[in-house]
Design goal:
Oligomer: single chain
Structural class: alpha/beta
Order of helices and strands: EEEHEHHEHEEEEEHEHHEHEE
CATH architecture: 4-Layer Sandwich
CATH topology: Metallo-beta-lactamase, Chain A
Low-confidence stretches: none
Radius of gyration: 17 Å
Strand content: 25-35%
Mean pLDDT: 97
Largest sheet: 7 strands, mixed
Number of strands: 14
Helix content: 10-25%
CATH superfamily: Ribonuclease Z/Hydroxyacylglutathione hydrolase-like
Shape: globular
Amino acid sequence: MASVEIQFLGSGDAFGSGGRFHTCVLVSAGSVRFLIDCGASSLIAMRRFGVDPNAVSMILLSHLHGDHFAGVPFFLLDAQFVSRRAQPLVIAGPPGTKKRMTEAREVLFPGSSAVELPFPFDVFEMDPERRRELGGITVTPYVVRHPSGDPPLALRVECAGKVVAYTGDTEWTEALIPVAQGADLLIAEAYTYDRRVKFHMDLQTLLSRRGDLGAKRLILTHMGQDVLARLNTLPCEYAEDGKNITLC
């Protein structure tokens, strides 16, 4: 069974707290390489850490806020004019992704959405709680609590015999339990330390429900200033831009 390699290209919040790039996680499982989220600064992060955009076959989007999906128009522009992509690309996100993607491309680069891309390109909208095979992996999305114009999702991804769970941005919801149950890795937002912020997760709530979540390993991401100030005393792993881990 192939190992699964994970690299945190971006682990920051919407405000770049701690000088971190917006959310973007690269997962490599055998010949399959895909991104989980692609925030506005993701292409810069890929250049910083030596990741070839042409090696990425798919982008999974948890929700349609700029720090999680606004890097896609830049990724597509690079694919046309710099990386000269020929390989197919699939973008999978919540219901509403096709419309929002077109709107984002037009706002950032007017006329770009009408240009035919020189590579096979498909935008797929995932049905909540429907397990679906996509490009050699299996994804099951669950609706969480983080208003973003279209349904926000947590993602359960099965690849190379491993399960990677990702909360996206959300306050606590019971929907996270089936996402994380038995997962080899749970990547979880911890925006604040103990202060309750509507539609976001605080670390103390996350830790208090860790047993219910049932994941084998937990890594925090999307941390705000008060969590970053406590990195030396956190009781669990946390993401850093460029950090690599292996699931064997």
